[in-house]
Design a protein that fits this description.
single chain; 295 residues; mainly beta; nine-stranded antiparallel β-sheet; globular
Length: 295
């Protein structure tokens, strides 16, 4: 494991090659250090306890760990011991390699030679003024065409008065084993077309037709955070834990995950936004986090 530290005097980030994660992202403002992602408790935590990890060659879950594509049946093996599903691809469980590093930027890569997905993926992290950006791409290194997707799983701090603005068109219900159910109208307590607080309950839902921008407001910290994603990411996932799932949860973070596709897209008509890559073809996108002074 290698730890990479970036700083430009206004923002500072700490990265880890264990899972290609962001461990910390801070805004240095008037003598204060304001966390823009949930800070990891230590440098050797796993991705699920980090500030952000990548989703490749796709995100979330596939129903029954199987899908059919171009006449072939593919099966996936669960990759964590607490979930019956192959979860979030493999990139977040891989050891990445730093291939470039400067004071304000770094690049990491990983090659995955497993089945059914063989791929190479890259992340480039950049600090530029008050903006922290991550570029993510994936190349199909397999011998056949496959449906690919990208995304990130960031954990954002949650204070008692935190609000989220994130317009979307539809919400996907959740069914047994954390799988997506069906697309519905967005319920009132998950309608973020205007700034609203996060519900005081379990939330684990996909958002279809996300506008590609979001704003988090932490009034107690007089700070707002603007999230902007490139055109590839027009879906998202929102997660608020509870103590029945995680006894240590203190309502101190939530997740808002930019995704290029819907969960279980492999089993949907039109692949739910997944992109078919022929051998050697690639897919790429980026997202940016920019803090602003709030009131």
């Amino acid at each position: 494991m290698t730890i990479v530290c970036l700083s430009n005097g206004e923002l500072s980030a700490k990265l880890s090659t264990a899972g290609g994660t962001v461990l910390e992202l801070w805004w240095e403002r008037e003598g204060e250090r304001i966390p823009l992602l949930r800070p990891a408790a230590s440098e050797d935590v796993g991705p699920l306890d980090s500030g952000c990890f990548p989703l490749a060659p796709f995100g979330n879950r596939v129903k029954d760990n199987r899908f059919e594509f171009e006449g072939r049946d593919y099966r996936l093996t669960p990759n964590v011991d607490w979930d019956p599903h192959y979860l979030h691809g493999d990139a977040w469980l891989s050891d990445w390699t730093v291939v470039a590093q400067e004071d304000q930027s770094a690049e990491m890569r990983v090659n995955h030679e497993g089945s059914p997905y063989a791929y190479e993926t890259r992340q480039r992290f950049v600090l530029a003024g008050l903006t922290f950006s991550i570029e993510l791409d994936v190349v199909n290194r397999g011998s056949t065409a496959m449906p690919f997707g990208l995304g990130w799983h960031p954990y954002f701090p949650m204070t008692p008065r935190t609000t989220l603005l994130a317009p979307a068109k539809l919400l996907w219900t959740e069914i047994e084993n954390w799988l997506p159910g069906e697309a519905t109208q967005i319920p009132a307590d998950l309608d973020f077309s205007r700034p609203a607080e996060l519900p005081h309950r379990w939330v684990n839902n996909g958002l279809e037709g996300w506008a590609g921008t979001a704003e988090i407001n932490w009034p107690e910290r007089r700070t707002k955070l603007l999230l902007e994603a490139s055109d590839l990411f027009r879906h998202a996932f929102i997660f608020v834990s509870d103590q029945s799932f995680d006894p240590s949860y203190q309502r101190d973070f939530f997740c808002f995950e930019p995704m290029s596709h819907l969960a279980n897209g492999q089993n949907m008509a039109g692949l739910g936004g997944l992109v078919v890559l022929e051998p050697g073809e690639s897919l790429s996108g980026s997202f940016r986090l920019t803090p602003q002074a709030g009131t």
